[in-house]
Structures are given as C-alpha cells and as structure tokens.
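User: Can you predict the 3D structure for this chain?
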Amino acid sequence: MELAQIQAFIAAAQRGSFVRAAQALIITQPSLSARIHALETELNTMLFHRLGRGVRLTEAGKAFLPYAQRALETLEQGRDTLNALEKVSSGTLQVGSARAIGAYVLPDILARFREQHPGIDVNIRTGRSTEVLQMVMDEEVQVGLARSLKHPDVLSTWLYDEEISLVSHPEHPFALKGEASIYDIAKEPLILYDRDSSYFQLIDRVCREAGVIPNVGMVLDSIEATKRMIERGFGISFLPVHGITREVESGTLALIRITEGHQVTLPTSVMVRRARIYSPAVLAFLRVLKSMYEVDVPPLEATSV
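Assistant: Here is the predicted structure, written as structure tokens:
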C-alpha cells in the first residue's frame, strides 16, 4: 500500500470523479485509475462503483475512507514535524512562569535550552500560577511553568514537586533545636509571601488542618524580601527549598523539621494549549524539559514520527 494510492483514493472519493481527482493531483487519469486499481487489488475488494459520468464509493470504500484519511493526516503531521525540526535553529519562544519558578528554577532550564538552541530568543512573562494559566489560554505565551492547574483546553504535564520548608534565623530556638511543633510554630510571628499565592493558601490550609491559626506578622510581595526579614530575626516562614539553597549553604537561614511530620509540597507543571501542530521553538523547549525531568510530555508524543 503506497502513499500515492491513498492520495488517489481520497481525491476520487471527495470529487466523485477519476478525471477531477487526477486534475487535482496533477497526474493523468490513466495513472490515477491504475493507482486505485492497485489499491483495490491489494485490499481484495472494490472501492468504487464506476458510473457513466463519475464514481461512487462502495460499502467497502465508505468503511475504508476514514482510515485512509487518518493515515494521510498522520503522515502530513509527521512531515510538518520534520520540517519544524529543520527550522529549530531560529525563532522566538514566549514563556510564562510563576514568580518563584522564574526566579529559582527557570534560569537553569534556560541555560540548558540556550546551550542546545542558541539561535532561539526567549521572552519571559511572570505572574501567579493562575495568571500563567490564563496567559497560555489567551495565547500570550506558548509555554507556561506554574503550579499544577487543570483546564480542558490545556495540556498540563507534571515536572516535579516543590518542597516547602519551615525556615528561621540560624540562632532562633527552633534552629538550635533543629525542630519545632506545629503548635509552637503557630505562636511565632509568621512572615508570608503574597496572600493570593499558592504558597499562602497551602500554608494556611496546613495550619488549619492541624487545628492552629497562624500568627501572620507580615505579608510581603516577594520571596527575596521574606528571606531578608527572616535573616534580620523578624519572624519565621515557609519557603520553597529551591529558593533558599544559597542562604542555607552559607548559614544565614536554617531549615526546621516539623515534629508532627507535616510535609508541604506544591506540584509544578509545564502547560501548553492543545493544538495539532506546535512551533519548532516550543517542541525544542519541551524536549529540554523532558531530558531534565525525565517525564513524557504529550505534545512530543503526539507529534513524533
């Protein structure tokens, strides 16, 4: 079964005429008839009723048509993907990112991406996770990196779980002991980042599930500002581990274990709007994420050949 035979069959089925189908494919009518005859011989069935002024599908032809159309569409998608791969050396990629991801995780991703694709320019927009989802929906960005959110028009693929840890000044009693009870934590002034963020909502829920009301002393607009306040001894906070690595290693912040064993994590995902074909830059970026986090990204599976 050859591609030319499938193309001839579909063209004739759509036009009801071997003559018009041959004209559409820019071949002679005898050549088209020969292709269809060869296909019928291979399938061992008649696909068309030959009429005086045209052709009409037989029942077998009607049954075979959707499979032929899907096969041709799949091959065309494969061709488009190969063409896209040839053009991946240039272009522009629009990426939306949650603020914490953009500050502490995205730089390493972009470094890997630029190393492999130096000719692709990357533009970054940041916001809360819900805002990143909306950017993807509105096609303001091609790829979104945010806390895992679902929408029927968006493909969301989990990348990793961000661990959220209790952090204090290294000379705080919690740090000296190395651990703290959730009930003692509730008595301390808590510094939180962005009341409308996923972090705030998650920490508030964990505290309330434990039956305590957090003593919120400050609500700041950035993780960096939160870290500086903790370093000055103004309170404690829950912060993403990715965002405090440098301070913990240098000794200006300390990680505290919660004795009740509460673990706080936020799943992080990559999001793209559902589409039949994705740009070369998008596919290249998703391949970098796949290699870094060892996950299967649906758009790559759908467009593979």
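The longest helix spans residues 59-86. The chain has a mean pLDDT of 88.
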